[in-house]
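Slide 14.
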Amino acid sequence: MAGALSRPKIRVEGKNDLHSMVQLLIRHGLDYDSEPWPPEFPEFIDSESCEKLLAGMPLAVELGTDRTIGFVLDADSPLASRWEAVRGQLRKVGVDTPNAPPPGGFIGESPKYQARVGVWLMPDNQRPGTLETFLSDLVAADDPLIDHATTATTDAKQLGAKFSEPDTKKAVLHAWLAWQKRPGVPYGTAICAKYFGVDSPAAMRFVDWFKTLFAIP
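Slide 15: predicted structure.
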């Protein structure tokens, strides 16, 4: 992966996010599956948590002088609180942001550091949610197993399953993945294997945001 210092960057919450996005972009025709990557393609960086990603935003923009830096993080709930946290961090480096996240993802500038800055809140900048919300929308609407996974997960909770309520969607998705041809593969592998589709409205907007932010034809 050449040009690490000059290459644009995109920071994500964790490894699942990183591999899911790379595989989604490959499915949309971006040449992330060959080495070296084209120089305009950003390096994906695992921030290891949402908290670390948020805390590191100002420094990432400073280090991105004359380059482009993107951030992808879960909206969680409420979305408005997460967006305000993002706005507060970007304000420190002179990035003006709207009162609410744009449906197509945010793209702006830091005049002080001459850096182009983008933010995407999972799943679609409009709903509270996570990577799992984004991926759930990529399951075929007529797939009977996803309904069965939802029912089974509800039943498991009533029987004493230990996952928390905020992790319910994650539990459903992992139950669904357990019943695929290769049971229990990670999200990125499942996208590569075409267990997930890649053409939900949010996925299409994410790819458009990514290509616009990093000026990829």
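Speaker note: The chain has two domains: 9-129+199-213, 140-186.
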